[in-house]
């Protein structure tokens, strides 16, 4: 419990701009010099790292999906989106993920992409994992599929070839030891840079100048940000010196399912008139809450935990008590609603709650803003891969 409170405090401080520091409680302000010193130490390896150090390659194109800040940027939904689109093109994708913090993201990807030709390799050394998977399944040149594939025909290949045609590097921007053909950087449209300080004083993993490595920047949760905010983020990206393309994305809810029946698909309308307690341990809980409110329940309450948090007995009691309070207050049944990431982290613990628990299923969508929609994004990916990749030898 103490660890969870400490994580939540760090997250609040990381979201606090310097101008608001004088308004913080004294004990919180007292932590800032220590956090700033830790940030300076953690920043040194980034500053001193050489882009010329030895980097390994894979014999298939590598697409990195990463970010400059911690959590809530839509990396995993984008990996899911790309894997499904390559599958539709007839190209079997390989997802390479570290499996951080219990591997909730990799578990979610396995479940969501079980009906595709996607392979998933988990391990800290993603070059070794990728090489091993390619030796096991073989490889193909995706450019052949690009030439054959016509987006308008909407033909699903259903994984005709088990051979891998592309590797998708999950959370790969700081994984510099593996060369990539395409660098996609995800940016949270609600809180793009936090207070601009480095971890742990702030959320930044690299400075804004790192955007010059990006081929594509995707501003996520763009549907929840105002036009002025999106313009400011896009201007900051361009001012960093990059010449990359900028796209916009959102998470679109599709259905809900009950924790005991993950294969069911209940209409979003089942939330109409309901009392909902949103419970989440994700990087951007505000986006989850906003999405649920847009669906239209009668009342929405929330319990937020730190990103990747595993629910324990104390948390379960806290959730059960909040449910009882809501039932007494509204004299109606209350449903606990969680994200897919929370479900896949530990579905068994959610089944132990003894109350109705539903899971909101959502998918990333590219928003057609500034004439930069899904077709343009996929065309950009194919153009970069075709231009930069040699034909894979059989």
List the helices and strands and how they pair.
Blueprint: H1 2-14, H2 26-48, E1 62-67, H3 75-88, E2 92-97, H4 104-112, E3 119-122, H5 126-137, H6 142-148, E4 164-170, E5 182-188, E6 216-220, H7 227-239, E7 245-258, E8 261-266, E9 275-280, H8 285-295, E10 299-304, H9 313-330, E11 334-339, H10 340-345, H11 347-351, E12 357-367, H12 374-388
Parallel strand pairs: 1-4, 1-5, 2-3, 2-4, 5-6, 6-7, 9-10, 9-11, 11-12
Antiparallel strand pairs: 7-8, 7-12
Description:
Pathway: Glycolipid biosynthesis; lipid IV(A) biosynthesis; lipid IV(A) from (3R)-3-hydroxytetradecanoyl-[acyl-carrier-protein] and UDP-N-acetyl-alpha-D-glucosamine: step 6/6. The chain is α/β, with parallel strands linked by helices. The chain has three domains: 20-49, no CATH class; 62-251 and 366-388, P-loop containing nucleotide triphosphate hydrolases (Rossmann fold); 253-363, Rossmann fold (3-Layer(aba) Sandwich), CATH 3.40.50. Helix content is 37%, strand content 21%. The chain is built from twelve helices and twelve strands. Strands 1, 2, 3, 4, 5, 6, 7, 8, 9, 10, 11 and 12 form a twelve-stranded mixed β-sheet that branches. Helix 8 links the parallel strand 9 (275-280) and strand 10 (299-304). The protein is globular and about 60 Å long. The N and C termini lie far apart (54 Å).
């Amino acid at each position: 419990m103490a660890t969870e409170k400490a994580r939540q405090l760090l997250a609040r401080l990381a979201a606090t701009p310097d101008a608001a520091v004088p308004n913080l409680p004294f004990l919180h302000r007292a932590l800032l010099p220590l956090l700033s010193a830790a940030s300076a130490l953690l920043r040194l390896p980034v500053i001193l790292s050489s882009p010329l150090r030895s980097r390994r390659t894979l014999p298939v194109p590598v697409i990195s999906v990463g970010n400059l800040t911690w959590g809530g940027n839509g990396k995993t939904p984008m990996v899911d989106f790309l894997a499904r689109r390559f599958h539709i093109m007839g190209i079997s994708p390989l997802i390479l993920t570290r499996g951080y913090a219990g591997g909730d993201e990799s578990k979610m990807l396995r479940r969501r992409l079980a009906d595709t030709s996607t392979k998933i390799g988990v391990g800290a050394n993603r070059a070794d994992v990728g090489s091993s998977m390619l030796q096991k399944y073989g490889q193909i040149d995706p450019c052949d599929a690009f030439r054959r594939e016509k987006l308008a025909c909407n033909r699903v290949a259903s994984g005709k070839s088990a051979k891998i045609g592309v590797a998708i590097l999950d959370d790969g921007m700081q994984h510099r030891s593996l060369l990539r053909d395409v660098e996609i950087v995800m940016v949270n449209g609600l809180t793009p840079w936090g207070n601009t300080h480095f971890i742990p004083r702030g959320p930044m993993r690299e400075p804004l100048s790192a955007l010059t490595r990006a081929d594509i920047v995707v501003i996520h949760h763009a549907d929840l940000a105002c036009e002025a905010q999106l313009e400011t983020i896009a201007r900051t990206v361009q001012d960093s010196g990059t010449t990359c393309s900028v796209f916009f994305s959102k998470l679109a809810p599709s259905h809900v399912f009950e924790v005991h029946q993950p294969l069911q698909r209940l209409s979003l309308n089942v939330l109409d008139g309901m009392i909902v307690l949103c419970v989440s341990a994700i990087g951007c809980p505000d986006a989850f809450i906003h999405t649920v409110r847009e669906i239209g329940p009668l009342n929405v309450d929330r319990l937020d935990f730190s990103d990747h948090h595993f629910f324990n007995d104390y948390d379960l009691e806290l959730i059960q008590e909040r449910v009882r309070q809501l039932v007494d207050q509204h004299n109606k049944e209350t449903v606990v609603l969680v994200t897919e990431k929370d479900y896949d982290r530990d579905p068994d613990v959610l089944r132990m709650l003894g109350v109705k628990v539903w899971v909101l299923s959502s998918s990333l969508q590219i928003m057609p803003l500034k004439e930069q929609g899904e077709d343009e994004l996929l065309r950009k990916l194919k153009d970069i891969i075709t231009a930069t990749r040699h034909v894979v030898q059989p």
